[in-house]
Amino acid sequence: MADSRFVSLSDQEISQIVEDKDSQSTKKATKYAVKAFEDYLKHKHVSEHLIDMSSSDLNGHLSKFYLEARNKSGEHYKATTLSVLRHGLQRFIQKELDIDIFRNEAFKSSENVFKAARVQLKKCGKGTIAHKDEISKSDLQTIYNYFSSELHTAVGLQKKVFFDLLYHICRRGRENLTTLTKDHFKVATGLNNKKYVFQCLDEYDKNHRDTENVDGAHMYEVPDSPLCPVSSFERYISKLHPQLDRLFQRPKSNYRQSDPVWYEKKPLGHCTIGNMMVNISQDAGLSKKYTNHCIRATCVGILDDNNFASRHIMTVSGHRSETTLKNYSNKRETKDKKKMEMCSSLTSALGISAAAGSSGEVAVLTPRNSPNLLTLGPIQSQDLSPMFASALRDRTIQSPNFMEMLMKVDDLDFASIVPAVKSPQQSRVTVSSNIGASGCGPSIQNSSVTINYNFNVNR
After folding, report:
1. How far apart are CA 430 and CA 341, in angstroms?
2. Over the stretch 379-391, which tens digit does the pLDDT of each residue have?
3. End-to-end alpha-carbon separation of the chain, Å?
4. 321 vs 299: CA distance, rounded Å
5. What does the alpha-carbon distance between residue 50 and residue 40 come to, in Å, rounded to a whole number?
6. In this structure, is the dihedral angle defined by the CA atoms of residues 143, 148, 149 and 151, taken in order, positive or negative?
7. What does the angle CA 347 – CA 348 – CA 354 come to, to the nearest 5 degrees?
8. Which pLDDT score, from 0 to 100, does residue 355 have?
9. Which residue among 40, 157, 193, 390 has its CA within the 20 to 30 Å range from the CA of 26?
10. Alpha-carbon torsion 347, 348, 351, 354, what sign?
11. Which residues contact 287 (CB under 8 A, 6 or more apart)?
12. pTM of the model
């Protein structure tokens, strides 16, 4: 009797297994690169197929291709797209000819040309990378106001659970969403006896094709909130069709609130899931159209702005290196504030003052009676430091959370604090502070506040 512990695979089966290790997006990128290069060779009247070329000829054609390649509109490729083409050709040539065009000495000149081509593309303005936008804070509030009014519907509940999972679990925008099942996520009880949702089944994704990646984020409950993500998830799961295991099912067109099932025995389509955030943007009336991937970018950006270490963010986002994470978490808001402060310092040194009604400079003050640190541009005859310090004094004493108190500064009566201000409802004020997580109690006394203002000023 044959030993049943082992099986026999044909060469074709083994080859297919090796082929399947690459994602569909990688295969498409490889096919796209080969097609672009073959079209180029055809345009140049080169009849020899690339796999039949000598290393010397292939190196020469690659060198010219990197410099002469254009998209279908006849324009230069972006530098990132040229890199995609190069990597696609590398994968194909490595597989078919067992040649590494990145490191093989015979392709040294084409590699140098590629580097020069990227520099040239940057000079032409084709070197920038267009990252997905983060969802603005005002749009985040609008989204959840929309969800609040739609939770009683099958479509609204599904959209909220979709957004909650991508936002809290930090999932990729389209990958594997159509194949997720009810069993991929579970509810458990964690710290302080709070319930949370977590992903319990491993999945095969772009960044983790041969490694485990189930140790991700936890989506904790918000007790007594009608928008609690865990409560929404549990209710959604209870309304899914019991005979279909897919997590995202097609909502029924006709149902009653009391019905046990709100969804059909049909999975939601790939395009419908892929455009979910676009549809949310339209239905909620957001300031712009966001994509699914914008939710992930927002998650990483907010965690970074709140000073979580990159290694901790990576456990949530699934990024495998800090280099790729920096594409999302670059503290854009913090950098912008610092840039404005530096520009203000340089402008002040020139003796230039802001015109009436224009954006003001930066006011720095401490929350209690303190030395006046800076006199502001448009209102040079007055020092705002003691004015704001006086207005904030009571709040500082009463608020246990200093940063939360500061974010409410925009409801102060600026007309009474600064007599020169007119139309206070049109004034814009943002507040930041150097106070860290432990910035409470006595340490507040020595912390500073930065107020960026845009007053409409009477001269």
Report:
1. 13
2. 333 344 455 455 5
3. 101
4. 17
5. 11
6. positive
7. 75
8. 46
9. 40
10. positive
11. 136, 138, 139
12. 0.57
- Low-confidence winner among 265-279, 286-300, 419-433 (lowest mean pLDDT): 419-433
DSSP characters over 218-260: -EE--TT-TT-HHHHHHHHHHHS-TT--BSSEEEPSS--TT-S
Q: Is residue 445 a contact partner of residue 454, using CB atoms and an 8 Å limit?
A: no
Structure letter (DSSP) for residue 400: S
Do residues 444 and 395 make contact, with C-beta atoms less than 8 angstroms apart?
no
Phi, psi dihedrals of residue 160, rounded to the nearest 5°: -65, -45
Contact yes or no for 310/192 (Cβ under 8 A): no
Residue 440 tokens, joined: 């409470």
Q: Yes or no: say if 240 and 249 are a contact pair by the CB < 8 Å rule.
A: yes
Side chain identity, residue 100: D
Nearest to 145 by CA among 317, 277, 252, 286: 286
Tell me how far CA of residue 374 lies from CA of 43, 81, 350, 352, in angstroms. 66, 48, 16, 15
pLDDT in tens, 88-112: 999 999 989 999 999 999 999 999 9
Q: In this structure, what token pair is assigned to residue 258?
A: 């009391």
DSSP helix/strand/coil, 366: coil
Q: What is the spatial distance between Cα 336 and Cα 102, in angstroms, rounded to a whole number?
A: 38
What is the amino acid identity at position 321? Answer: S
Q: In angstroms, rounded to a whole number, what is the distance separating the alpha carbons of residues 73 and 342?
A: 42
- Residues in Cβ contact with 417 at an 8 Å cutoff, skipping those fewer than 6 apart: 384, 387, 388, 390, 391
Q: What is the mean pLDDT of residues 189-217?
A: 69
- Look at the block and give the residue holding tokens 């749009």: 139
The residue type at 51: I
Sign of CA dihedral 270, 276, 282, 283: positive
CB 132 within 8 Å of CB 291: yes
CB–CB of 431/403 below 8 Å? no
Residue 334 confidence (pLDDT) = 56
Give the per-residue pLDDT at 39: 93
From residue 309, alpha-carbon distances to 135, 166, 303, 420 in Å are: 21, 20, 9, 44
Sequence-distant (≥ 6) Cβ neighbours of residue 356 within 8 angstroms: 378, 457, 458, 459
Q: What Cα–Cα distance (Å) separates residue 274 from each residue in 4, 149, 277, 291?
A: 44, 23, 8, 8
pLDDT for 216 beyond 80: no
Please state, in angstroms and as integers, the Cα–Cα distance from residue 280 to each residue in 86, 140, 171, 272, 358, following that order: 37, 11, 17, 11, 36
Q: How many Cβ atoms are within 10 Å of 378's Cβ, its own excluded? A: 24
Mean pLDDT score across all residues of the chain: 74
